[in-house]
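Reviewers of the previous submission asked for a worked example of the structure-prediction workflow described in the proposal, so we include one complete record here. The input consisted solely of the amino acid sequence. No template or homolog information was supplied to the procedure at any stage.
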Amino acid sequence: MLMAFALVGCALPIEPVESGLRAPERFVSAAQALGPAAAPDPAWWNGFRTPDLDRLMAGAMGGNFDLAAAVARLQQADAALRIAGAQLLPFVDVSGSVARTRGTSSTPGTPANAGRQYGGSLRASYQVDFWGGLRAQEQAARDSVVAAEFGVGTVTLATQSAVATALFDLLGAQEQLAIQQDNLRIAERTLTILRQRLVVGTATGLDVAQQETVVAQQRAQVPPLRQAIEANTFALAALAGLTPAEVTIAGQRLASVHVPEVAPGLPSEVLARRPDVRLAEANLAAASADVTAARAALFPTIALTAEGGLQSIALQTLLRPGATIYGIAASLTQTLFDGGALRAQLEQTRARRLELLANYRQAIVAALQDTETSLSALQRSTELVTLQTARAEAAQRAYDVSEAQFRAGTIDLLTVLITQTTLFNARLALVQAQTARLQAAAALFTALGGGWTAGSVRQALAGTTP
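From that input alone, the workflow returned the following structure tokens.
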């Protein structure tokens, strides 16, 4: 047994996990070469100061079905690790038996033989992990647990991003609806003036018809906005694990939503924080251990067994030395021919590792691209909000002047229609720019890892019902 344990030192090595890629020194879209930065707050959405967002995030973190399924997968991985670890330990079982036998006599007139037999035994077996195959299986299971933890983090960030995106879409649609209804009132007010002028002969039927077309166009834009509000409300309910009737959004002006500042820090920090990158890394590590386990399966298997117990035909003599039985054995098993199945399995695990290596590299590149895109989107959308604000203010001033002059009869209807259309478009464009800015800010938080930690996963797991 001691020799067997000493031979474990000959275990096959597990290939280290390396992507072969080097993280850049800074983000292209960063204002300057920033140094290390603190990770975002795990409750990063509080920085937007939006009560609806805080409430919906809390509901999604507690009731989202995808998140619950990810936590259940982590529980499965924990159990699989315990199973794999048990194979490194001796297997011991105990048994007891009582038997009564009765046989027939072959000689007429001779009574049949009958009797009882009592027994008890303790058996132990141990497979010597000479080539490290069992330890590789345990390491693969351990890496799978890590991957499951990062899987929970990936689902968590995806859920948080979906909630923020849906809510900001909804707020934007609500504000567009309010603006559209105001645009409709403006168009209807102009139509009323034209109808009054038609009665006294200072306007034509063509003028009235043109404005009626404008009113109809403005009215037709209301139903799609209502549908967008309803669709996003239903999506938020599904993200929180609720029925559509259970979610109501009070609404908030986009201009009143605070956009928190966030420093991206170094690309290497972001890659270390993002759970999707760490998930790909853990999957690759598990595949590397699987390759080692498959390679070890090509070598002989050494097993040690020992069995001892008591056996007697009388219960009162069961504990006497003469009733003792035992057996000790060692076995070595080597597959001679399996049609190439073991080598094919090794090739399969190697190919699987190459696939996961490509996935790991892709996750790194995608994370950097996601962060760069989010940084750029926030910068450009912030600039766009400033420009669209100036545009909307200028359009409002132009329309106010044109309406006053139209009432005074100093300009024609065409000028009013042009300034109306410009104002309507400018107001809607401003809302769209504000919505895009909020979505870009939320996307940047999730691109930076969202402040997610593995400890929060374990807390969520501890709070589940077994």
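The beta strands are 91-102, 114-128, 301-312, 324-333. We consider this example representative of the routine output the project will generate in years two and three.
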